[in-house]
Amino acid sequence: MTNLYVADKLQRVTPAYPDDSLLRAAELLVQGGAGVLPIVSAGEPIGILTEQRLREAIAAGANWSEPVGDWMEEAFTPIRIETPVETAATYLANSMLPAIGVDAWGRYVGVVSLAHLIARPVAPVSVGTIGGMATPLGVYLTNGIVRAGAGDIGLALTGALLLILYLAASWMVMGSAQWAQTHLGIPLLSYYDSPYAYTWLASDLMGLMLRASEFLLFLLLMRMLPIAGTHAAEHMVVHAIERGEPLVLEVVRRMPRVHPRCGTNLVAGVALFLGLANFLQGMMPEMSEMRDLALLFALLATVLFWRPFGELLQWLATTKPPTDQQLLRAIRVGEQLLQRARPYSGVVPPFGIRLLRTGLPQILLGAWGTLALLSLLERLLGITLILG
Fold it and tell me: β-pairing, 99-102 with 77-80?
């Protein structure tokens, strides 16, 4: 039983609430098949109902409509689900009390019995929904409870890298526009700063194209960096885990590098809506009812096409075919996540933990920190680093 935990051998019994009737509790007791029915309040176990206790209630003249909370037993043993099987089995062998499996926050997860700890086949690990990030330090994976791979520093570096890539794209576009205006007499910089954006004047269309080129150049720079291959490797490992495939190179190589839950899709949806809304509304006269219609059309188009557009951006820009080394490193992170998730199989973490595990706070902190550093350098050196 080495490397097995209580979470691997739990009985997933649907609990009752104190206000449930004895009839409902009896039904759940039969359905659970564990001989013990947990009674929970606010997610935490507060008592149990056994067949012996049910017989006592009937013998005492209890009505089937009475709340089970009046007849539950409060004597039980909570056991953390990350407890090794050997430790839990030794404890239960010397205890007469029923045992309830709880997570790290004391919330009910399942019923624990000595017989199941010893004899029950290992249940598949319930990892839950997996999220991930590609960072300069490698793949980051999480299921909202545990995480594996790149740590907080890697996530913060991702935020810094994304900001630097965007600024680099802006520098290149504005620098090229200024060079063309100075040396060739083509007023590209004036077009870029045009105050009449999103109209049909030639200068404004040129300005719109220049601003759109920043986004395209940003995507091109991302595609050129190794992080695009790391991003693809992350997607492919997540696909393999979600399909129940073994994490071996030959299998993971066959997985798609586009994933439907990638954050690129969300960015694509926002960009699609804002781009269409600004462009279409800019074509309409001021105070025109058609502006509202244009906004509605932009919303409808976004709802219909944001996911295909996001998947196209993933394929063309934010991912590229990974190397075998990138895949192998991502596979190791995936195996690490599965190992760490096993003791917490089926646990639902609090919102704050889930938010922290997404990596978004660390990414934002990295971007803001880089922005603050660049602002400080601007003041100290008297140069312009942040454009736009």
Answer: parallel
* Side-chain half-sphere exposure of 192, counting CA atoms within 13 A: 23
Q: Is this prediction's pTM over 0.70?
A: no
Q: Which neighbouring-strand residues pair with 149?
A: 140
Q: Are 135 and 227 in contact (CB under 8 A)?
A: yes
pLDDT (tens digit, 9 = 90+) per residue, 138-188? 999 999 999 999 999 999 999 999 999 999 998 998 888 888 888 888 877
Residue 324 region, left (φ>0) first, then alpha (ψ -120 to 50), else beta?
Answer: alpha
Domains in the chain, start-ordered, CATH in brackets?
6-119 (3.10.580.10), 131-257+319-381 (no CATH)
- Crossing angle of helices 202-224 and 227-242, in 10° steps, is 70
Tokens encoding 276: 């269409």
DSSP-assigned letters across all residues of 108-159: EEEEE-HHHHHHSPPPPP---S-EEEEETTEEEEE-SS-EEES-HHHHHHHH
**Residue 312: Cβ-neighbour burial (10 angstroms; 0-12, 13-18, 19+):** middle
What is the torsional sign of CA 278, 282, 283, 289?
A: positive
List, for residues 280-295, the tens digit of each pLDDT value. Answer: 776 766 666 777 788 8
192 touches 241 (CB < 8 A): no
Residue type, 322: P
CA dist., res. 294 & res. 280, Å (int): 6
Question: Cα–Cα–Cα angle for 16, 18, 19, nearest 5°?
Answer: 100
